[in-house]
Design brief:
The chain is mainly alpha-helical and about 45 residues long. The chain has one helix and no strands. The longest helix is centred in the middle third of the chain and has 40 residues, at about 1-40.
Length: about 45
């Protein structure tokens, strides 16, 4: 039971790290998509 508890703790720590990375990636993606929309609004030469 103790081993399972520590395993669950490690899993939760990994999950929080993954979720924080995912939020960073999604914020970067929103910045990239907004830049892309601004570029697409400009007429291409």
């Amino acid at each position: 039971m103790k081993i399972q508890n520590s395993k669950f703790k490690i899993l939760s720590i990994q999950w929080s790290a993954v979720s924080s990375q995912w939020s960073a990636v999604s914020s970067q993606w929103s910045v990239v998509s907004s830049q892309r929309s601004a570029v697409s609004r400009e007429p291409f030469p």
